[in-house]
Amino acid sequence: MKVKICGIQTIEQAKVTVSAGADAIGFVFAESKRKVTVDQAQSIAKEIPSSVKKVGVFVNASKDELEATVHGVGLDYVQLHGDESPKFCRSLNLPYIKAFRINEAQDLSKLESYDNASYFLLDSATGPYQGGNGTSFDWRLLKNKAIDSERIILAGGLNEGNVQEAIRQTRPAMVDVSSGVETNGIKDTYKIKNFIQKAKERLI
């Protein structure tokens, strides 16, 4: 199971995350308590091996901003959490992850319109922010849905205590966590290591 740790803000956090076995890390460029500047992300990215994917999180950013940040930081993917239309996403010459806030089964029908997305990130619709609220949606909504699980990144309310059950129910390509590996809003080394270990354990 691949694991993405989102909301990385320091070189130290990045090094801990990489050494713990993360497959991807996320930089938040949208308004958030975890927001980083392009300069901060550049400094951190230099310390990350190419084997670990670098993802930038944006909300309704312009095409110019996306392209400039990708090239400035060396991002592998842009993760779009806003109202980006299928037409806008198709116009990007960038690998992208489209995020969706899932509340009911009908919300999953939106995925079809973004057919050229590299991944679909499924998050909870509960909470004030476009992502990173620490709440989960009903994973049973994914049962019997004709969705390519190899393109699904599961997010929302995951932590070391529930990640194995989440994987068991949804079989995603990757799990994504931010607040679930924090203590008092700060990335917690112990929780990061435990989460990645749990996510990568063979399910019985």
UniProtKB/TrEMBL annotation:
<dbReference type="GO" id="GO:0004640">
    <property type="term" value="F:phosphoribosylanthranilate isomerase activity"/>
</dbReference>
<dbReference type="InterPro" id="IPR013785">
    <property type="entry name" value="Aldolase_TIM"/>
</dbReference>
<keyword id="KW-0822">Tryptophan biosynthesis</keyword>
<keyword id="KW-0057">Aromatic amino acid biosynthesis</keyword>
<comment type="similarity">
    <text>Belongs to the TrpF family.</text>
</comment>
<keyword id="KW-0028">Amino-acid biosynthesis</keyword>
<dbReference type="InterPro" id="IPR044643">
    <property type="entry name" value="TrpF_fam"/>
</dbReference>
<dbReference type="InterPro" id="IPR011060">
    <property type="entry name" value="RibuloseP-bd_barrel"/>
</dbReference>
<feature type="domain" description="N-(5'phosphoribosyl) anthranilate isomerase (PRAI)">
    <location>
        <begin position="3"/>
        <end position="198"/>
    </location>
</feature>
<dbReference type="Pfam" id="PF00697">
    <property type="entry name" value="PRAI"/>
</dbReference>
<dbReference type="GO" id="GO:0000162">
    <property type="term" value="P:L-tryptophan biosynthetic process"/>
</dbReference>
<protein>
    <recommendedName>
        <fullName>N-(5'-phosphoribosyl)anthranilate isomerase</fullName>
        <ecNumber>5.3.1.24</ecNumber>
    </recommendedName>
</protein>
<dbReference type="InterPro" id="IPR001240">
    <property type="entry name" value="PRAI_dom"/>
</dbReference>
<comment type="pathway">
    <text>Amino-acid biosynthesis; L-tryptophan biosynthesis; L-tryptophan from chorismate: step 3/5.</text>
</comment>
<keyword id="KW-0413">Isomerase</keyword>
